[in-house]
Amino acid sequence: MNKISFYSKVCSCLLFILIFQCYTAQEHPSLILTTKGVAEIRANLGRIPLFDETLASTKSQIDAEILNGIEVPIPKDYSGGYTHERHKKNFLMMQKAGLLYQILNEEKYAKYVKEMLFQYEKMYPTLPLHPQTRSYARGKFFWQALNDSNWLVYTAQAYDCIYNYLTVSERKTLESNLFRPLADFISLENPKFYNRIHNHSTWGNVAVGMIGLVMNDKKLVERALYGMKKDGIKEGEKDNDGGLLKKPGQKAGFFANVDEPFSPDGYFTEGPYYQRYAMYPYMVFAEALQNTRPDLKVFEYKNGVLLKSLITLLNLTDTEGKFFPLNDGQKGMSYYSRELVFSVDAAYLFGEKNTGLLSIAEKQSEVTLDNAGFAVAKAIQEGKATSFIKKSVAYSDGIKGDQGGVGILRSKGSTEEITLVMKYAAQGGSHGHYDKLSFSLYEGGNEILQDYGLARFVNIQQKGGGNYLKENKTWAKQTIAHNTIVQNESSNFEADYETGDQFHSDKYLFDANNPNLQIVSAKESNAFPGTEMHRVLALIKEDDFENPFLLDIIKIKSKTSNQYDLPYYYFGQIMSANFKYETPNILSPLGTKNGYEHLWKIGEGSQPEGNAKVSWFNNDRFISLTSAVSKDDQLIFTKIGANDPDFNLRNDPGFMIRKTNAKDTYFVTALEIHGHYNPVTEIGNNTFSNIKKLDIVYQDDQYIGIKIMTVGGDLSIFLFSFQDADKNSTHNVSIDGKIYSWNGAFTLIK
Amino acid sequence: MNKISFYSKVCSCLLFILIFQCYTAQEHPSLILTTKGVAEIRANLGRIPLFDETLASTKSQIDAEILNGIEVPIPKDYSGGYTHERHKKNFLMMQKAGLLYQILNEEKYAKYVKEMLFQYEKMYPTLPLHPQTRSYARGKFFWQALNDSNWLVYTAQAYDCIYNYLTVSERKTLESNLFRPLADFISLENPKFYNRIHNHSTWGNVAVGMIGLVMNDKKLVERALYGMKKDGIKEGEKDNDGGLLKKPGQKAGFFANVDEPFSPDGYFTEGPYYQRYAMYPYMVFAEALQNTRPDLKVFEYKNGVLLKSLITLLNLTDTEGKFFPLNDGQKGMSYYSRELVFSVDAAYLFGEKNTGLLSIAEKQSEVTLDNAGFAVAKAIQEGKATSFIKKSVAYSDGIKGDQGGVGILRSKGSTEEITLVMKYAAQGGSHGHYDKLSFSLYEGGNEILQDYGLARFVNIQQKGGGNYLKENKTWAKQTIAHNTIVQNESSNFEADYETGDQFHSDKYLFDANNPNLQIVSAKESNAFPGTEMHRVLALIKEDDFENPFLLDIIKIKSKTSNQYDLPYYYFGQIMSANFKYETPNILSPLGTKNGYEHLWKIGEGSQPEGNAKVSWFNNDRFISLTSAVSKDDQLIFTKIGANDPDFNLRNDPGFMIRKTNAKDTYFVTALEIHGHYNPVTEIGNNTFSNIKKLDIVYQDDQYIGIKIMTVGGDLSIFLFSFQDADKNSTHNVSIDGKIYSWNGAFTLIK
């Protein structure tokens, strides 16, 4: 044996020992803090400002909790109620106290966790199912097994931190009476909750996995990673949204839950609000696995989709960091949430040390009290932070990235970025909305054309216990609640989940190469059978416009004659309309079903010639909508709130263009954000639309030509090919005897 | 003649010369800048930051204007339109350019003013009345003589600054062809505009006075100070609001306009929005008079009411400096307006050097480029600024202070000040609202219970040329548009101005000595003949309430049976109600006239036992209203916006308590601002009302006793005497066999 060979063998051997150690070592802590990490943190206390600040505020919070005393009430309430909020607070406090024990090495924190754990241990064995019965998978501490899983994910970390503080017998008591039974309850006793592809299941998997790692229980870890082989779920069994609980051959467990909801681009099919919610279990378990089972290379799984998804999620925010409320999403949720604080830190440490993440962490102005948070705070102190640049981008949806997606256009405005978000994705699971080809528009953090979001007041007990309100189904999910086409007052797929889940829209093109002419376009052929819809949304920046303006073109081709409605939901007050309209003396709902029953019709008119123009005023800004309409189009003003016996809906206004008895048709609309009014100087500037005329000057099955004339008399023609998105194709059309030629699917000729 | 006598004579003589000089000296500038002031400013350039910053930004603004070139278009538009806004900009720019010429001593600024003046001079002689005919007193440059007066007030200052730059012959040309004809036009040719007690007249008087001072034209100055002896206004002649143009024996001119609208406390009867507007001419002319006619002692006039009124006006703002929108007032107007920048500076220099004003000037972050602004900036640099403390205060209305008034209660809340504004004033002139005993409530700068303000979009041309909308009369002025009692769906004085103008409410008591129990109370006997209303509003601070809560008691005594409505206008969305209510499938207006035609009735219910409680949610805050109602009371949810064919009204919600067939009755309501919801953590705290029960436990003609029981079981009893507000009186009532005794009109017994 030569030397090289000898060393090679020694190395292999060491490597084996190392790997073996990693797998079996029972160092504690090892989930998000490691012994090495703790040593480094302790050695640097007082030197890393952001870490020290978070530590100080956490310490003061936990010290106050310790003073307040431990409360472990008998479970009783829905979310928003006392027992729910107390148990929720308990697991959050335990986790933090555990970290403090490790970092500050003060016994009182370990003692606090230990005492609380033993109160839970005392209660658990005789605890029945939670008395509130609304959930399909009731928990014990909480009304949903989901929240019990939250509890275990956090508590596992607390247990990890005080593991070595406890005696062997104490650990045995806790594990036998509390942790293992709870892990089994979540999984074995709740297969419909645990063994699915769903954000709920991810929480379940991770709860079982995290406690499994601390307890060094390989069975639990296996069950977490790969699900349960036997779950008793019958073929064809559906959940209460009408979706299959399990598709044939469907895998389960953590890895399956990484596989399924994420596209290769890291887009989470349920949408950003739920991605944010899911992010924490994904990242915390990945981090724990990376620390304890590096052999699994979890962060490399599916081309590193977990780390990628965090970047994607950050891009799915407005300029203030608030998530676009695609599908069910409560407005206001943002990257300031604790899940994102955790994930941003983790993605920095375990990813490629993306310094853009550091600037997000700076804005969050806190870090996690663990290895990752320390690394972030240290890098910030070292001045490594750079801006996190959000670009115009298209994200694919679907496991393989072939199920449509979401396109975001970002264009610099005079004061704020104008942001457009178009959705042409798959159904998005049970939280999906029937909103094919819908979009929303922002100026900075202000919604100009809004997506309604969800009909729910999360954790506000007065409103249905903080749960989904029935108006979520009757209004928020319906197509009419979105800025997109509704055919015959129905919803996409007749709002049938199982049908909708089989289809997706298709991206036609996404091109943001020219910052002055950014375009996203997609097609939808299944939402209204027999009808093809093709939408083009462009942000166009021209010198004589204060801001990039939106050009919205929808081409509809149908086998039948239909009524098409195109609503735009805005905020603010109508300033002017260039057509006559009547406001009724008595308000009636616009329709009787599919969400129409929730709209008051507050005005109706028509424009006998040319363009309909409506301007409104919000946040001291003017917004003008100009649409090329025909004299037969009905122009309808609406307000949300009809048939709303509990005042569950926001009473936001809308403007709708309705075409009746139409087969093949176009909707062509421009929208400008302009002007400003200062209530102190009482001076308004640029308060009028800059578009004098918007005309369809060419249309056939292949092309459309739109002429835009400004008030100043400038002309531009937008030309678009509906059938060939190839960048290298050449197109020609003849308009008024003049030949226009261009390369690629679109052009804007001045 | 002894020495003393000799010196005495010399002194007298010198004094005479001095006075004479002051009166006749033609030093320029002398209005808001003096030669001495200019010298001091020039000597300190670059040393006084706030002054230098204002100077730099003004310079850059005027330099840009000079580059842009002069535009003096033929008058054509209403406010908001091009010619209006251009002429308005012109006088503002000329005034600033004049100041820059003096301070920087650069000829280009004088040249700019001169050239613009000569363009006006060229246009004026042949200029007809403004083509827009809506005003009762049309101008020439603008649609109202009022705006022409604005023009002259500012332009006089510009002329003063470049006076010495012009040749004698140039001055003569300007004075003969432009200034004197314009001054005569405003006054002699528009007596109904000029010779009244009205904020319009003040502008007219000051315009004539300012140009008179510069031209050293004593006739014009006399006309400004004391009005015109002959005005041809017929006795009994009324304006379009139905008010007498001139009461018999009424004086006119500047001093009369100081006498009349201000109470001795400095409250301006039209309300703060118009006081702000009027403040500029009052202060600028006072300053100019003080500099040129110190013999008039203008700042001492009527016990120094001008300076006092500025302090009063600053107190009529919320914590963000926004004026309470009493009477016609556009929301958002604040002490950041240019009128207040000017007035704050002037009040500092010409008043008692109130250092609190300096902190307001710091917030304004600009000063005027004149003697006063320099003094303020210098004092700030010297570190003299102190906080401007706004206290709870009652201001009297009426020339003699005997016509009711306005009471403001300010109480420290958990995060923000809770501010209550009660109005029990006189009619308030043509901009007055029929809102006797109304109030509004703020938390910091947020309106909790709102005063609607006016129905107008000032200077936004799309909305009726920026002028008053018809809904101002049909809605905003009506009693139902306010948080106060409406009898039989009518308005106070049947909304008849002439009647309303004869009466006022009466303060019953105002007591803010105890910060934990602040009270304002007033009575009204004329608004609904035969009915006496007595309202008590208390801000009560108790330990187990997050914020001071409002207790609102209204005692009504009538000769007849009536319907009484008490609306509360709020912002946000209903979270819960403790009574059953129906929401109609079809919305109808609540009534047919007096503003009721503008309210949609969106829900109605009743509470068969005890208290009606409604909670709503706004700005992440919860607000709960608890009212002691009877089973016959109708509880009505409303929304503003019916019969609004041009969408001129904001669609704000209201909650109304209606008592029918009532003669003598009480409304007793508590309102709590509590809790917080964080959309990022999704945690809501203190989201429920803390009041379990609100009961009237004692009532007779003299006393009322209200028992308040909290959720925690704490009891307190509020006792109030309606007939004896004397602080030294002793009262006794027996409740449930127990005798309660107290001193003064009210007490809160725990």
Automatic annotation (TrEMBL), chains A, B:
- Where does the source fall among the domains of life? Bacteria
Q: Which UniProt keywords apply?
A: Lyase, Periplasm, Signal
Source species, please? Frigoriflavimonas asaccharolytica
Example of a GO MF term: lyase activity
The protein depicted here goes by the name Alginate lyase
Q: What does UniProt give as the signal peptide span? A: 1-25
InterPro entries (alphabetical)? Alginate_lyase_dom, Chondroitin_lyas, Hepar_II_III_C
Q: What is its main location?
A: periplasm
Query: For the Alginate lyase domain, which residue ranges apply?
Result: 94-314
Pfam families reported for this sequence: Alginate_lyase (PF05426), Hepar_II_III_C (PF07940)
Q: Which GO terms describe its cellular component?
A: periplasmic space
Q: What is the lineage of its organism?
A: Bacteria, Pseudomonadati, Bacteroidota, Flavobacteriia, Flavobacteriales
